[in-house]
Amino acid sequence: MAGTRIHSVRLPSFVVSTEVVFGGTGERLVMRHDPGESPDPYVGGTLLAVRRVGETPGVRRGLDSLLFDRTEPGR
Predict the structure, then answer these.
(1) Which of the four pLDDT bands, split at 50, 70 and 90, describes residue 69?
(2) pTM reported for the whole predicted model
(3) Which of 2, 29, 33, 38 is the most exposed place for a label (fewest CB within 10 A)?
(4) 30 belongs to a structural domain
């Protein structure tokens, strides 16, 4: 995607895991998030999106656009 390689893994019992790898010559920075074997960590964000969908015009990309009001100064 735009010159960035993206890989996806789908395996039984591998629920959700996110790993972001940034690399340069001779270095690598890895960030990983493993929420466990249930969708519980995502319930709060999903409920927020469901509650706000009726009052939110247009298409949104990213849950942060619902968490933070982009019209506030400094945002």
Answers:
(1) low
(2) 0.42
(3) 2
(4) yes
Q: How many domains does the chain have?
A: 1
3 residue type, one letter: G
Bridge partners of 27, per DSSP, are 24
Q: Tell me the backbone φ, ψ of residue 3, rounded to 5 degrees.
A: 85, 0
3-state secondary structure of 66: helix
Q: Which two tokens stand for residue 63?
A: 């849950």
Tens digit of each residue's pLDDT (9 = 90 or more) over 3-48 = 777 777 777 776 677 888 888 899 999 998 877 777 777 788 888 8
Q: How far is CA 42 from CA 9, 10, 11, 56, in A?
A: 19, 18, 20, 20
**Domain assignment present for 1:** no
